[in-house]
Design a protein that fits this description.
This protein is an alpha+beta fold. The chain has helices at residues 2-18, 114-117, 127-130, and strands at residues 55-64, 67-75, 82-88, 95-103, 119-126, 135-139, 144-148. The strands form two sheets. A four-stranded mixed beta sheet has the order 3-4-6-7, with no helix packed on it.
Length: 149
């Protein structure tokens, strides 16, 4: 009985000297500590490696709930181009500009007919994006097309 009492007092004295619960690693409120200001570097701008489509054949704007759908038809120099996208360019007053970019085929392909080479891409533009925009431009390597309100 006395041995148990001495062991209990020794354990309690040891545990009491370790730390308070508020400073313990077992307390989930202490897992992330306080916030602090950190220094950052300017974000690295990654240039899109995909080339521009050779020609932009046409662009259309179709109304949609909450905005509009911009649809562009491009004509690359040969068959096999894929992963077309309309990449937003820095905006100027009242003008929304896009670059029509595509990934060329990895192996040589046929030229064939214009119809067989056409690529169609589309992008939804919200009402907030279109607010104050009077003209939308789509750029290819050899030409550009624009549509106005």
């Amino acid at each position: 009985m006395i041995a148990r009492g001495i062991a209990l007092v020794a354990v309690l004295a040891t545990v009491a000297g370790c730390a308070r619960m508020a400073e313990s690693r077992f307390n989930p409120f202490n897992w992330f500590g306080n916030d602090r200001e950190i220094t950052t570097t300017a974000p690295e701008v990654i240039a899109d490696p995909r080339p521009l489509v050779a020609q932009v054949s046409s662009i259309t704007i179709d109304p949609a709930p909450g905005g509009a759908i911009l649809r562009a038809v491009g004509l690359p120099p040969r068959q096999g181009h894929f992963e077309g996208d309309l990449v937003v360019q820095p905006a100027t007053a009242g003008v929304l500009a896009f670059q029509f970019r595509v990934v060329p085929p990895f192996e040589p392909t046929r030229v064939s007919t214009d119809r067989s080479r056409e690529l169609v891409v589309a992008r939804f533009l919200s009402d907030q994006t279109l607010q104050g925009i009077r003209e939308i431009q789509v750029f290819g390597a050899e030409n550009a097309r624009a549509v106005r309100r």
